[in-house]
Amino acid sequence: MKKLLLVISIFLLTACGANPTAPITAEASVTEVSASAAPTEEPVIEPSSPVLFKIVKADGSTFDVTLEAIKSLPLTQITVDGKVQEGPKLLDVLALAGVTEFTEVSLSGTGSPSTLTFEQVSENTILDFSNRGTMKLATTHIPKADWTKDIAEITVK
Description:
By secondary structure, this protein is of the alpha+beta class.
């Protein structure tokens, strides 16, 4: 999408420098149609905060975790393999859904699913934003290669 916008911008800048009395070519006409169609290709984001993932509680009920809710939580930093990771503690995210007691949690998304015991959901276990606007697990309790990325669901037991 960024490439399409860049191409459209170049065409529009080129058109601005063109002779105003020059006839409009078919290519310019296509560019104008593409430019007007481009905004409809992007999903419309409503003012309400989008759901990032859901938490499935032990009783089977679900809780949608929104971007707004995540942003309201305090951030914690941990260092793993020499790189600083920053995000809310998984404990705080679970508390959003009213979850304070559990034996384990399982995270699913892309990459490796992860299961953490109650003891592993500690100060050193956070959810960090990925470069794609999704969240990933970051913890000192399991190897970085096994972290769940693009978290879609957290299941509590």
